[in-house]
Amino acid sequence: MKNRLTIKDLPDSEKPYEKFLKYGSQSLSDAELLAVIIKSGTNGLKSVEVAQNFLNQKNRNLMNLYDVSYEEMLKMKGIGKVKAIQLKCIAELSNRITSTKYVRLVSLCDAKSIAAYYMEKLRHESQEHLVLCMFDSKCKLIADSVISKGSVNSSIVPPREIFMEALKKQAVHIVLLHNHPSGNCAPSKEDDEVTGRIAECGQMIGIPLSDHIIIGDHNYYSYRESGLL
Question: Which three-class secondary structure string do you get for 168-179?
């Protein structure tokens, strides 16, 4: 029976821990960083080799942490349930760190700041997510809520649920935000209909729809910036 190989089996020049202590985390390659998480290899593969094999899938880079599913990870040599969970948790931590970094910069008056805050949360999603963002009288984000998942169109977007949630949070302004899994942020006819419908309801209730932002792949579209709200 073959012994499991660990980071300790590597020569000192290749050990991520020793390299970190000597040169800092910036000196580690992507595979070495993942090897610290993976810790041990299997059946003749060192942990760095398991990490490199993982990176060679799909996108051939760290984006695999987002785009390779838990089930797909389980099919890879050297990655079992625990390691797959650890890798998916690293991806989620990355999302949350990015969100924490931007949350204090989010402003109702700046579509770019709102798009930046939600970009990493939404651009990797395989289906559309409609998010309600709620702001106070000082134009600061006070809460958000996922209203629906799936196609965003006027027949299934619930104005009642949107404004009940806004009233519950005592929001003064709201912004709708959703992603396009295609990566193209150009608005569709359905997006225009949803925007018009919610904007009209907001005027009647007294909680204006200040913007509707569509998230693409590192790009966004703002109805407000386009002069349509």
Answer: HCCCCEEEEEEE
